[in-house]
Amino acid sequence: MLLSLMIFIPLLGMVAVLLLPRESEELVKRVTLLFTLIPLALAVYLFISYDRSTAGTQYVTNVPWIDAFNIQYHVGIDGLSVTLLLLTALLGPICVIASWRNIEKGIKAYMALFLLLETGMLGFFAALDLFLFYVFFELTLLPMYFLIGVWGGPRREYAAIKFFLYTLFGSVLMLVAMIAVYLNSNIVNGVAEGARTFDIPTLITLAATQGHALANSDFQVWVFVGFFIGFAVKVPIFPFHTWLPDAHVEAPTAISVILAGILLKMGTYGLVRINMAMFPQGLDHFTDGIGFWGNSLALLGFINIVYGSFCALAQTDFKKLVAYSSIGHMGFVILGLAARNDSGITGAILQMFNHGVISAMLFLLVGVLYDRAHHREINGFGGLGTRMPIYTGITTLAFMASLGLPGLSGFVGEALSLLGAYERFKFLTILSTIGIVVGAAYFLWTLQRVFLGTLNPKYEALPEINGREILTLVPLGILTIVLGVWPNFAIDMFRESVTNLIDVLNAI
Amino acid sequence: MKNIDSLLYFTPEILLVIFAVAVILLDLVVKNRESSAVAHLSLVGCICTFAAVLFIHFSFGDEGPISLFLGMIRLDTFSSFFKILLLLATAATILFSLRSEELDARLKGEYYALLLAITLGMFLMASSTNLLMIFISLETVSLTSYILAGFLTHSPRSSEAAFKYITYGAVASGTMLFGLSFLFGMTGTGDLAQIAGRLTELLAAGDIAPLAVLIAITFVLAGVGYKIASVPFHMWSPDVYEGAPIPITAFLSVASKSAGFALFIRFFYTGFGSTGLMESVNWPLMLAIVSALTMTVGNLAALPQQNVKRLLAYSSIAHGGYLLMGGVLLTSEGIGAILFYLVVYLFMNLGAFYVVVLVANEVGSEMIDGYRGLASHAPLVAGAMMIFLFSLTGIPPFAGFFGKWILFTAVLEQGYYWLALVGLLNSVVSLYYYARIVKAMFFEEAGEETDSVSFSTGTFALLSVFVIPTIFIGFLNIFYTFSNISVSVMPMQ
Amino acid sequence: MDFTLTNFIFYGFALMTVGSALLVVTVRNIVHAAFSLMVTLFGVAGLYVFLQADFLAATQVIVYVGGILVLILFGVMMTSGRLEMRIHIERGQLLLGGVVALALLTLLLTVIANTPAWKNLTDDGTELPPTTEKIGELILNGPFLLPFEVVSVLLLVALIGAALISRKEVRD
Amino acid sequence: MTLQHYLVISAILFTLGIFAVLTRRNAISILMGIELILNSCNLNFAAFSRFMTPSEDISGQIIAIFGIVLAAAEAAVFLAIILAIYREFGSIRPDEVDTLKG
Amino acid sequence: MVVPLISIILLCPLAAFAIFGLLGLANRRFPRQDYLSTAAMLIALACSFLLLREVVPSPEAHTVDWLSLGGVTFSMGFYLDSVTVIMLIVVTLVSSLVHIFSMGYMHGDPRYPRFFAYLSLFSFSMLFLVVSDNLLGIYIGWELVGLCSYLLIGFWFEKDSAANACKKAFLTTRVGDVGMFIGMMMLFKQFKTLSLYGDGIFTRITNPEYFTADATGIVWLSIAGVLIFCGAIGKSAQMPLHTWLPDAMEGPTPVSALIHAATMVAAGVYLTARMFPILTETSSLVIAYVGGITALVAATIAIVRFDIKRVLAYSTISQLGYMMLAIGAGSYVAGLFHLTTHAFFKALLFLGSGSVIHAFHAMHAHAHDDEHDHEHADSEEHILGSEIPPDQDMRNMGGLRHKMPITFVTMLIATLSISGVPFIFSGFWSKDAILGGVLGRAMEWNSAHHYILFGMALCAAGITAFYMFRLIFMTFFGEPRNQEMHDMAHESPKSMTVPLLILAFLSLPVVNILWFNEAYVKPPPQPHLHAPQHAYIAPDGNTGGKGYAVSLFGVSEAVAAEEEGGHSTDGTHADDGHHGHGPAHTIAMVLSIIVAGLGIFLSWLFYHRRTLSAESVATTCRPLYNLFWHKYYFDEFYDGVLVTLTVWKARLFAQFDGSVVDGIVNGVGFVTRDLLAAFTGAFDNRVVDGIVNRVAQVTWAVGGRIRRIQTGAIQTYLFVVLAGIVLLILIFRAL
After folding, report:
1. CB distance E717–B168 less than 8 Å?
2. CB contact under 8 A, A168 and B408
3. This prediction's pTM
């Protein structure tokens, strides 16, 4: 109940916002903030009260929904979802605050869409029914499309439709796979028995049952591919990534934050929740390290890392750089998942969370600069360190976290992913470490071009980062440090879930 | 059942005729050309008919299918389902017509009478079980459609639409009639159920060549396919939809197509549904190919369109393709999916056309450019249009998604993976052109300073009649149940 | 096949029907085409007689020749000036149409020739009583009542519609 | 006079009708083609009624009668539309009535 | 007491930094950040001394679970042995002194408080590195010191050169770190842990459950060892990743003293020493060669530098090479010993040079313009941004010994120490220990490699003496070359001279006490070091039993035992710190005194007596001079090849992304959009082929040519219908 409350409170907020008069902008913002703070409070409560010692799902609500297809409204959390729920709920109010001043038109619609988006994201991470899962997955598309398309930059229309088309393309393949799973969910030894189901936990059990249609390895491979492409677009995994730089660059700051912070995680979350847990044999086919296909997933991770990093290196647009860096960092997640061992999966999950926090910071920081200078050309700045010391400090922190400096959260995830991946894919992992160097290179180079050197006289009067902006950054910065110093804080949440997952993977 | 006994069950149809005549008579009486009395009378007619349909359904629905007029038509849940659907479409069209400024106010009487008459034809299409009845009902609908499409005075486009429509329709129905004559010739009967039995026997006995059956089926498909605008019988529809008055376009794209599907399902499942026949003539595969072609052609052709009506015409072709997928499966899930999708399609497509009517009234344009900046001066209308369009695309949480989902589930269940994949990729393509309208409405600014357009409460009320189901149908159990029950009367192998 | 008078007359009608139909689709003058059509319609009516369908034959003559053909002639007169009596054709179109028509014909003939059930069914020449009464019975008290009623609605619709559409010019 | 005789005649009529519809660039000629098609159908029904059903069953004939009636109705509407076209476009050549396309 | 003390040591500087950071967010400052940081350091120093007593012979690691996964646990913890304590003392001591020195040196800088905060952060990181008991912890500290180094080198980031230098430092060391990380991954995969002590890598390395010392195993271990050493190559500025260190001199001089002389750069040596047990013969040789070559090459480069700090920078590189050489040659204690002595005298040298620079500081702005216009207008110094600031250019100095007596004396002591002037300077002892160790290994193993290495080390020793005295002569002796600057020069304030004096004291052999205590510092065993055959024969004449063919477990035990036995009997390892034992040490000592004397003498001839002219030598040996001057063209190579390559590759990728991947996607979109044209021409097979083959262009071309099917003419439509019917029938008739 609590969980459902959390999911649907933003939706309620949307209705509330829509009912407010268009003129009272301040009120709209405050109401929105309120309706994002409540989920945050609930998420924190869930996070604290979550029983860390078991892998099972908790706070489960399971009521029938569409009987004709045995679809249930089934939500619940395990360690992985509660972590991402917290991240989502945390970024909610931060993004609202970040949008406080720089959304010029249609603030009401903006906030309403934002709240809808939040419901979609929260629901996605909590859904335990495949159908519900898909509906929430898609539910994020619409608000995102409008948020980019209406409030975005000059090429927003292009970026928005590109984002939409790409994701839809992926998700229809996922839909096919999903229906295939549903249709086979009651077939044991070639005979149909009982009702079909969309229930994720049930399906996971069935997929591990000898003789069940879902446990057929060929079937698993194909369905794995279907789901994978759906999620790969979201992650994004090369070559499905080209929507991302455009969408990021054109989206308004807060939306970039959500995009990078949460939407990308939806892809990887899906990979863990569906692809890995439900189709271990499919996973095995792509990660057993034998032949091309056995290395393919790791190869994709590697390509993402190196490709994303090098692309980032070549960017001169600050935001695009950060966007490409996201591609690189998500590569570590893929690599870690492909390793499918303790350290790999834990690393990947940590990296998901950390990247959510860090990239959110980075986009917020880019936004701060953009609001002041009205451009993002890296070479157009210079020497801002003298003018904006606090801003520079926070940026340095974020950069360092992002490039994987130990002691900050980015490192733990990356290192664990690599450690895990090395056990299975030596060569690819070693090659992937190129990404670490290049990652440092582009961030440091940016740092140098923007903040170091002599102050560009154009920006002598650039105001320092203000309190509101600091307010958005501080919680993320604290998380970055806390998780870097004490990663068990997060790992405690999902250790059992990961162990459980690995048991499933090893059982085949 | 005997003719006289059948009359009771025939009340809805009789009511329609009565009201059609009454409308004409009222039109003679009412002198004020601006009066909307006739429209309201026809609405009342719809409502009465609706009540009658429900009454008959709930009074006699339990008795199972009833054959009326000595086997000419059948009363079953399937036909009741379509009657309700068609009445909704008719009522909506009447309401659209009330608001449309295209139509000549002086011809209202005839217009509404024709609408009621065409509804009668569609009722019969949905319930006919005899070749002759099928053909007559089809002709009734077609002939009335031609007239309605050409209804606009002094609009060359409208006349052209009517001309193309009738030429096309006459050839298609002529071809179909030839096919029907072959069916009659092979079996010596006009009753669908008997035809099925006889055909199977004759084929098994080698008394008739499979080619004869194939030709008959293909010729019949020409007539049915033209009604549901499937490739290659679709080509009239973009032109007719563009030329016809908007309410009629809406009506044709929803009601006419639904009736076509009713006919198609009954004809093919009752008449050609036997396994023996399908072994000789694999018509499901033929339909699968036709279906794939239809959605692909419809979607691709829609991409470059500038005229929203024409775009929606192609979109409606594409949807015909999706629907047809359900028809190739020979399962009750497939048919159930068609029925459910038709309900969804009714709301979203009519809704979209209603917005087209509104915009045409206010902006005077049917072009996409006319929709620019609509979100800023008519946010609710734009929002509603957005919902309809995304529902047509099949994006959750809108009903269109649920409709597509059920369809694709049914298709995949029968192992038609390629067909499902074609369909799904098509729905991705379709996003592009639907989104073009959304883009114009939301992302672009109106060319010149347009004043905020205020619509009447009635407009919004009507709009919400379409919006609310488009959002919620998918979430409710009842519609799935209804469409599933309606299928149960069809013979399945 | 013996060349009895009946057969001779039958072939005469058949030839008349087919030949005039061929003229209908080939002659370049629209009025000639219309008259050829009349011959075809008569020919078909004759064939109906051979099929013992007297009422049908009569209907054919009355409705078609008396109604439809007159309508067509009116149409010709109202739409074609003297110079526009010629029907335009285009060679490419002719070719494509010819191919399709021939293909169809081949298919149909193949079917007709290869369907055992339709083979060797010779008209035994049994005379049937005039069908009029039976038809009346079937239509008014038989299964064809409903079609009959519906067709009447259809005719009404056609009436209104035809009037409506052709009336247009009066309105301005 | 076998059934096949009638069927062949009807098939020829049908094909000629199709040919006319496809090739004649005149709306009224197209109408004539359509009439040929309908006639062929009616002839089929009548023939089948004679040969394929018991001789007292004349339902095929009745279908043909209905066919004639429908043809008449259709012809009436068709001609009305042709007149409208003629007024709007000044021509009844179908290839000149092509403002709606693409 | 160990854990609390270490915690205090770590937390004090961290707190000092945290206070700065948190207040900084609110745009506030703690009023005296300098006192805060210094006090923190002093407390840490005191605690470090207290820890001396806590050292036990076989210490245990104090760990907590840091990262516990289902199957694996990564722990963090402290490991305190003698080496740790010594390092702690060295770090805290030098750091404290640098803190104090900076109060004078950095006085008046606009970012004065921040400087101290960074210093604190650095100290914390370095100390964390030192006390960590596991590779992960070391790596964390490792990267953090890198960050601090980055921040401090770029402290005056307004200078483009500083901004460049800090980036270069971070990136170059990161390249090495990646190697180290790969090494860590290898070790983790094999040993399932990254802890070193307890049930860590060093134990598991002899456990056949985890590691088998067959031929592949040894090769694998060698690779892992070398990869870990890569980290040290980067951080300790060994060839070929040394180029960042001279550039790092852009940072404030106290930073150079602390980070780039005494502590961080020495962390590489410390790491290598920590990993001593996993070194095999091959990896040892690699380390030794890298160290030896670095020592020699860097020394030669130092000869021709004029920038006082860069001379010291190359000297540092060279000395670090020495230490590496020592460890690679198995002289564990000697290497660490040199690390300690070097930390003090090199810190002293840097601080002394800082004092000199500070003396010229006031002149800075004044002389700057002149500089550009006259002296160095077309100087080669412009290359690669290594333009010498006038206050660091030795050619502007001279005769300072009277102006700055304390600085002079202390620096002289340090120079004598580094040059290896015998007996009363610490440097002599440590350097001699290294030379003796290398020679000892050479003689013991009869290894040509180690003779070569010894030769390199000896040459480097001589050159070191030469360039260090060149520095002293040019700076403090002779006539003032730039009178104006000379006039302005003055002795530094107390806060600067006191640390100099303390360090000077520490450059005397006081630290030797720690290292000469055999019981206190003991090299760990190297179970997988292949000793040459005869080494096995030597003690007991047993030849066969040492083969690895027998029970593997037994062998590794035996080898370990053998090694330990070897240490105590022949004295090459355990005794190398103890002067005067064995013939190797005697020879080495004599030779080293000779080369040192030679170096000093030549230097005196060149730069004081000026009987020999450096310029004429430079002219006669032009190619060699150029080689030295251009620092063996390393920077050119990197700039020219690697950087270009990387950037080029990045551009290529970006272009690929922009045009190809996106292009394909857009192309597909485009094709789909224009498929209308394609399906209008659906009868034309070429179109279909065209779509598949030459996606976009063909569609365009064909699209234009082919008539659209929706022509608007009704007869076309009818044709399609009827043709469609015919086709459908034909197709399905065939089926």
Report:
1. yes
2. no
3. 0.85
Tokens standing for A187? 């077939």
Q: Which domains are assigned to chain C?
A: 1-90 (1.20.120.1200), 128-172 (no CATH)
Judge whether E409 and E503 are in contact, CB under 8 Å. no
Contacts of B31 (CB under 8 A, 6+ apart): none
Cα diameter, chain E: 114
Q: 3-class SS at C128?
A: coil
B343 closest CA partner among B356, B326, B328, B357: B326
Domain boundaries, chain D: 3-96
Domain D3-96: top CATH class: mainly alpha
Separation of alpha carbons E384 and E717, rounded Å? 75
In D1-102, DSSP assigns E strands to none
Domain that holds residue A398: 288-508
Q: Is the residue at A23 inside a domain?
A: no
D94 with E710: Cβ contact below 8 A: no
How would you class A1 by CB atoms within 10 Å of its CB: exposed for 0-12, middle for 13-18, buried for 19 or more? exposed
Q: Which of residues 694-733 of E touch B (CB under 8 A)?
A: 709-710, 712, 714, 716-718, 720-725, 728-729, 732-733
Contacts of C93 in chain E (CB under 8 A): 715
Query: Residues 244 to 263 of A: which have CB under 8 A from any B CB?
Result: none
Closest CA of chain B from D1, distance in Å: 17
**Hey, are the CB atoms on D100 and B182 less than 8 Å from each other?**
no
Q: Position of tokens 């913002």? A: A29
Q: Strand, helix or coil at E379? A: coil
| Closest CB to C68 among D19, D56, D72 | D72
Contact B69 C151 (CB under 8 A): no
Give the Cα separation of C44 and D9 in Å (integer): 9
Q: Which residues of C touch E723 (CB under 8 A)?
A: 100
Tell me the HSE value of A398 on the side-chain side, using a 13 A CA sphere: 28
Q: Does residue A220 sit within a domain?
A: no
In one-letter notation, the amino acid at residue C9 is: I
DSSP letter at B189 equals -
Query: For D19-49, how does the pLDDT look when each residue is reduced to its tens digit (9 = 90+)?
Result: 999 998 888 999 999 999 999 999 999 999 8
Contact between chain A and chain C (3 or more Cβ pairs less than 8 Å apart): no
Q: How far is it, in rounded angstroms, from Cα B202 to Cα A451?
A: 89
User: What SS3 state is found at B207?
Assistant: coil
Do E628 and E447 touch, CB atoms closer than 8 A?
no
CA E482, CA A439: separation in Å to the nearest integer?
Answer: 46
Q: What was the pLDDT predicted at E567? A: 40
| Opening angle at CA E343, ends E337 and E349, nearest 5 | 135
Any residues with CB less than 8 A from the CB of A239 and at least 6 apart, and which?
A: E661
Residue A137 maps to a domain: no
**Cβ pair D81:C87 closer than 8 A:** no
Residue A131 has pLDDT above 60, yes or no: yes
C88 close contact with D: CB closer than 8 A: yes
Cβ atoms of E504 and E344 closer than 8 Å: no
Could you give the number of structural domains in chain A? 1
Residue pairs between chains B and D whose CB atoms are closer than 8 Å: 116
Model confidence over A230-276: pLDDT tens digits? 898 888 887 777 788 888 888 888 888 998 889 989 999 999 888 88
Q: Considering the domain boundaries, does residue A45 fall inside one?
A: no
Q: Retrieve residue E92's tokens.
A: 């805290």
Burial degree of B275 (CB within 10 A; 0-12, 13-18, 19+): exposed
Identity of the residue in C6, C104, C135 whose CB atom sits nearest the CB atom of D62: C135
- With residue B75 as reference, give the H or E element that holds it: strand B73-75
Strands E73-79 and E61-68: antiparallel
What ipTM was predicted for this assembly? 0.87
Find the distance separating the first CA and the last CA of chain D, reported in whole Å: 50
Q: Which two tokens stand for residue E641?
A: 């090849």
Whether chain C has a CB inside 8 Å of the CB on B174: the answer is no
